[in-house]
Write a structure and sequence with these properties.
Blueprint lengths: L1 H10 L2 E4 L4 H14 L5 E7 L10 H5 L4 H28 L4 E7 L3 H11 L4 E5 L16 H9 L5 E6 L2 E6 L28 H7 L28 E4 L23 H6 L3 H152 L10 E2 L2 H7 L8 E5 L2 E8 L2 E7 L8 H13 L8 E5 L4 E5 L6 H5 L10 H19 L15 E3 L5 E3 L17 H4 L5 H4 L4 H6 L4 H17 L3 H13 L16 H14 L10 H9 L2 H7 L33 E3 L5 E3 H9 L18 E2 L1 H13 L1
Helix pairs in contact: 2-4, 5-6, 13-17, 13-20, 13-21, 17-18, 17-19, 18-19
The structure holds adenosine-5'-triphosphate.
Adenosine-5'-triphosphate binds next to strand 9 and strand 11.
Length: 808
């Protein structure tokens, strides 16, 4: 057994504790090689982990760090250890040695060494003892705390050599501490009890009482407790440089066994009691080691359990929160379900309700359909009734309008008679107009000789004639109709009183033949000039403006008469020009001399009888309702004004001028035969005329305040221009000057009893009679021989003079 023990002891490796200081480690190895050549060497290393990651506590850290980070750090740590160990192994291999390595991870190095000693049942260990130790005689004086702690706390079965700077400073023998003082001194020359010299291991082998032969006889080993931790132990690392780890076995330490073969031990420890004690102590130590090992394993298990518990707790917490979430979701779903259920119930009840109502309606449907049919029938009946009522209404309205016209006419006549009565209370009205017999009319017209006919109007033909040696124009009106003779006379009476320089004078009338006798106007009508039929050429723009002024003046006069007189049929063919180109309007008041059937109200019924060119002057409103108003004359005046400006056809003149004005190109439509129009005035007149032609009478300008206000200032323009050929106008507003035709050509005074002579001129009766009585048979004005010396009273002029004298 002894030889076996020695052999196994020799084979057991020599452990050398090497640190991170490679130089120091190599020094230790050098010393070991020098002194223990032939033994297997196993490097012992305690790795101090970094703060962040511990290889041993990796599992614990995993809970805080990401797994891959932890693994990477651990790998790094291992590499560091490996690198360090490789340096030592390389060093050894250079000396032809192979070595194993054992390492442990621990923050406290001395504790790590102690643990490795225990775990690997290290029997022989070489470790450094600090730099200064070799000078000290006592190990406790060393500055190496690690050496001190290991020396004091390492199992007694372990023989430890402390080496400093390549020199052994202390050797702790096996069984250290069981009977020695803890204070260890280093003194190669001093040998006291319990003190072990360690100058040299060889020396130690010779001198040492316990195991001085240890290195000298490696085959003489003491049976150790060989305890090798499982290679899978998580806290310890072991690598093999050449061999495999030893199997786990616990044996009784051989060096504690009393052996008869060991004479040196027998001599020292023969006492059986001591031997027993040592045995007990050894057992106790083994037990302690085992229990420590178990405790360690238990601790490991406990750590694992704790980790598992922690992980389980985290999982439980996660599961709990998941469970809460699920519960909440479940509750929400339940609430949703509940709401949907309620909605469903509501919808169901509504559906039932609607179904019931539908059924009810379906039941009522036939009755409702029959009611609907009845309603349709009733509606149709009502529609028919409404149509009948509307027709009746139209009829009534027509009747009402007709009655209204009749009423207005009657009122007008009454007013007229009243006015006449006022002016002629003695009933001498019959003397106010020149009554002419039908035979005189026949004679004057040479029995209506066609050559005497100068015109054909809507109301009859106009013949030229000579009456009492005076040139006259005789207008033959249609038959009397409903108008009585007295009514006709009254109308003529009224008209013969209307006197104005721009109105054709009504000389007399023949009630019998319903003929009106007017003064004959030499120069034809405005229509002749505008249509280019006049022999004397066209009118200058000055003459045209003057004519417009004259027309306006005459209409104003008619409208302002005691009894308003609306012309109602104003057009260029009714505007005549006398020998001095003074404007003379004819046909005024003629509407009242013809029967109702012939009035403009019935124009549209006459249809083709009317020339559309003539109808273009008619106010559309009057044309529609048959009522003549002052605005009707304004409309006609507007069209005449446009024709004066452009000489274009009446039917299209409004549209033409409108377009030209919109395009800003009035020039294009102005009648150039009138000369060069002053554009400003022309535009003014065009604007004025277009306003007169507005469809709605209310939109037309007022004759006195607006139209006259534009025209009157233009009189100066006409006078200053070259219109000397045109006689000056004498309107009602210019009465302070004596009108020339009021003055007797012989007396050169205003006439008191004007009479028309055979030459057509009017003279003071006394003056012309005196002329004739003095033997003259010629005209005092022309000096031409007169056919006769008859005189005809000029009532019209007489009344005009009287009126003028009253006003002045
Ligand atoms: N006093 C007059 N002196 C000279 N010529 C006249 C006179 N009165 C009428 N005439 C001529 O007789 C023509 C016919 O006149 P009249 O008033 O009958 O018809 P009108 O005005 O042309 O059309 P309507 O009567 O249909 O409106 C005139 O255009 C004019 O040439």
């Amino acid at each position: 057994m002894g030889s076996e023990g020695e052999s196994s002891d020799f084979n057991s490796p020599l452990y050398v504790a090497v640190g991170r200081n490679v130089k120091e480690g190599k020094s230790l190895l050098t010393w070991a090689l020098e002194n223990f050549d032939g033994r297997n060497i196993c490097l012992v290393h305690v790795h101090q982990p970094t703060n962040l990651v511990s290889l041993l506590n990796g599992k614990l850290s995993t809970s805080k760090l990401k797994n891959h980070v932890v693994k990477a750090c651990q790998e790094f740590e291992r590499l560091k250890i490996q690198k360090l160990m490789n340096q030592y192994l390389l060093f050894l291999s250079q000396t032809g040695k192979q070595a194993d390595t054992v390492w442990i991870e621990m923050r406290n190095i001395e504790k790590g060494i102690l643990q490795l000693i225990t775990q690997h049942s290290i029997r022989r260990l070489i470790m450094g003892a600090g730099a200064e130790t070799f000078k000290s005689k006592i190990l406790s004086e060393t500055n190496s705390t690690k050496a001190m702690v290991v020396c004091q706390q390492a199992p007694i079965s372990c023989h430890i050599w402390f080496v400093s700077q390549g020199r052994p400073v202390y050797a702790r023998p096996v069984g250290f501490g069981s009977h020695l003082t803890t204070t260890v001194t280093l003194s190669p020359s001093t040998s006291s009890s319990g003190t072990i010299l360690a100058r040299d291991p060889k020396e130690n082998m010779d001198v040492g009482a316990e195991n001085v032969q240890y290195f000298e006889r490696p085959n003489r080993s003491i049976d150790d407790v060989v305890s090798t931790m499982s290679p899978s132990a998580p806290t310890v690392g072991q690598t093999s440089g050449g061999g495999s780890p030893s199997p786990l076995k616990v044996e009784r330490p051989a060096y504690l066994t009393c052996s008869s073969s060991n004479t040196s031990l027998d001599s020292e420890f023969q006492d059986e009691e001591i031997c027993d004690l040592r045995n007990k102590l050894e057992h106790t130590m083994i037990d302690a080691e085992n229990s420590k090992h178990r405790t360690f394993e238990e601790s490991l298990r406990w750590w694992r359990a704790e980790e598992d518990a922690l992980e389980a707790m985290h999982k439980a917490e996660a599961a709990e929160s998941l469970c809460k979430e699920e519960t909440n979701r479940c509750k929400e779903m339940e609430e949703l379900l509940h709401r949907q259920k309620q909605e469903m119930e509501t919808m169901n009840s509504q559906h039932d309700q609607v179904s019931k109502e539908l059924q009810l309606i379906q039941d009522q449907k036939p009755a409702l359909e029959s009611q609907l049919r009845q309603a349709y029938d009733s509606e149709k009946e009502l529609e028919d009734k409404i149509i009948q009522a509307v027709n009746l209404l139209i009829t009534f309205k027509g009747t009402r309008d007709r009655l209204q016209i009749e009423y207005d006419s009657a009122i007008r006549k009454v007013n007229k008679y009243r006015a006449l009565q006022k002016e002629d209370p003695l009933g001498i009205s019959s003397a106010h107009f020149f009554g002419i017999s039908f035979s005189d009319i026949i004679e004057a017209t040479q029995n209506f000789k066609p050559s005497q006919k100068i015109g054909e109007g809507r109301y009859g033909s106009v013949f030229k004639g000579v009456l009492c040696h005076v040139k006259v124009a005789i207008k033959m009106l249609p038959s009397m109709g409903s108008q009585s003779d007295s009514e006709f006379k009254n109308e003529v009476e009224f008209l013969s009183r209307v006197r104005h320089p721009n109105l054709v004078t009504l000389i007399g009338a023949c009630p019998e033949s319903r003929s009106l006798v007017y003064e004959y106007i030499e120069n034809g009508s405005l229509e002749d000039y505008l249509s280019g039929r006049a022999k004397s050429g066209s009118l200058s723009w000055q003459s045209r403006i003057k004519i417009a002024i004259d027309i306006c003046s005459a209409i104003l006069f008619l409208h302002a008469n005691n009894i308003c007189c609306v012309h109602g049929n104003l057009k260029p063919s009714d505007i005549l020009l006398d020998a001095n180109f003074v404007t003379k309007i004819s046909d005024y008041g003629i509407n009242n001399l013809i029967s109702e059937n012939e009035t403009p109200s019935s124009f549209h019924t006459l249809g083709s009888k009317n020339d559309p060119e003539k109808l273009a002057y008619m106010d559309p409103e009057s044309f529609e309702n048959g009522k003549l108003t002052t605005e009707s004359d304004v409309y006609s005046f507007g069209v005449i004004l446009l024709r004066l400006l452009t000489a274009r056809p009446a039917m299209s003149v409004i549209r033409d001028v409108k377009c030209a004005m919109e395009r800003g190109n009035l020039d294009a439509v102005l009648d150039t035969s009138a000369g060069e129009w002053p554009l400003k005035q022309a535009k003014q007149l065009a604007n004025l005329a277009l306003r007169c032609c507005e469809e709605d009478p209310m939109d037309r300008p007022d004759l006195a305040s607006e139209i006259w206000a534009v025209l009157e200032p233009m009189r100066e323009l006409c006078n200053s221009s070259q219109i000397t050929s045109i006689a000056s106008c004498m309107d009602s507003r210019n009465q302070h000057k004596i009108p020339s035709h009021f003055v007797c050509p012989i007396y050169q005074e205003v006439m008191k009893d004007p009479h028309i002579a055979g030459d057509g001129f009017t003279y003071e009766a006394e003056a012309i009679r005196g002329w004739f009585n003095s033997g003259h048979k010629t005209s005092p004005m022309t000096n031409l021989k007169l056919d006769n010396c008859d005189l005809l009273p000029n009532y019209a002029l007489y009344y005009a003079i009287q009126e003028w004298q009253q006003n002045t």
